[in-house]
Amino acid sequence: MEKLLLEGNRRKAVKNPEYITKIAQIKGISGPERKKLENLSGIFRFRSNDYYQSLIDWGDPNDPIRKISTPNEGEFLESSNWAFDASGEESYTQVPGLQHKYKSTALLLVNDVCGGFCRFCFRKRLFIDHGDEVVKDISKGLDYIKNHPEISNVLLTGGDPLVLSTGNLERIIAQLREVDHVKIVRIGSKMPAFNPMRITGDPKLLEMLSRYSENERKIYLMAHFNHPKELTKEAVEALSLLQKAGVITINQTPLLRGINDDPKALSELFEKLSFAGVPPYYVFQCRPTKGNEMFAVPMEEAFTIFQEAQSRCSGLAKRARFVMSHHSGKIEIVGISDENVFMKYHRVPKGFAGKNIAVLPRNSKAFWLDDYENANEALF
Fold it and tell me: How far is Cα 204 from Cα 187, in angstroms, rounded to an integer?
């Protein structure tokens, strides 16, 4: 499968993606700006490839693909109350490499590398110092899953599982398929957007996924398309091949300032996904993670954008829910009135008893549940 590179304002076909790991390799950035970003790039890792960079209009300083993949000074804004683990994921780590927050779902963090590092990533901490959250040997995590029959869904994440070789990924999936109570294996990946040639260029990957995506035990690909520009011909072909292999494809994205915080862009993303047979699944409130300030939209504004985007779509394209992955559970924002915000727990961990509907006084400056007065009393 060929890929396309930018030549002026036109894209030309070439064969294999080349990874870019240094700011100096980004040809679209001028010398003075490159030097400034090199000085800032010591904290948050950078990785991209020339295919994804070719989607950028370098003449547009507000290009959304540039903002997704290319370092920016805004990442180094300081917010005193924003942390590296905004959702308290580490507190749900049961054994190294495995999180178990919701009864039926476990997360296996299978690596700490992505095809490209999204600048708004909520797991930046893993790429700085992963500690016990990510391990190369997942045997303890597999043992935990085997000993917890309530787990029917396992999400492979990290990092990006499709960065693994097909052989290594198969070894993980094969072991999960030996556990009778695990019915769904999910793969969280941005590779269909970031490097679709990982899929279109590897028949063994597709054959393997087809073999393990059984009639009553499906494999799901949780894609991460954030903007309609990512849905290129190559990306759509990758999605189609996954579907032909029996993999269920769905999409989730955070709502991001300067990327998809426009109803027109977000509705176009929903529509294009639905055209490709990829249902929009979740739209997330951007987590208040250190380094993400430039991407965050206040929650009530974000929900209004989400609602307007959905109003422009057909029913098949408006299936997403607007949610926040709070440490106390997955909270859905279901409505706004002149005076109140209406929320409910979509999922709760053990030990929490979330209410069906919570009514909170509006706060136009709130980015997270904790910014609302008396939120705990209203929801717990």
Answer: 17
What single string gives the DSSP state of each residue in 277-321? T--EEEEEEPP-BTT-GGG---HHHHHHHHHHHHHTS-GGG---E
Domain ranges across the chain: 3-76
d(C-alpha 192, C-alpha 116), whole Å: 12
* Torsion sign (Cα): 216, 111, 88, 82: negative
* Global model pTM greater than 0.85: yes
C-alpha distances in Å from residue 64, one per residue of 52, 56, 57, 84, 347 = 12, 8, 9, 24, 31
Task: Dig out the tokens for 228 from the structure.
Answer: 């309609």
Do 14 and 3 contact (CB within 8 A), yes or no?
yes
Asked if 288 and 79 count as a contact pair (C-beta separation under 8 A), the reply is yes
Cβ-based neighbours of 88, under 8 Å, separated by 6 or more = 327
The Cα-based distances of 12 to 15, 207, 227, 231 in angstroms read 10, 29, 22, 17
For 193, the 3-state DSSP assignment is helix
Q: How many CB atoms lie within 10 A of CB 335?
A: 14
pLDDT in tens, 255-305: 999 999 999 999 999 999 999 999 999 999 999 888 889 999 999 999 999
pLDDT in tens, 12-35: 444 578 989 888 888 888 877 887
CA dist., res. 300 & res. 152, Å (int): 34
CA-based R_g, the chain, Å = 20
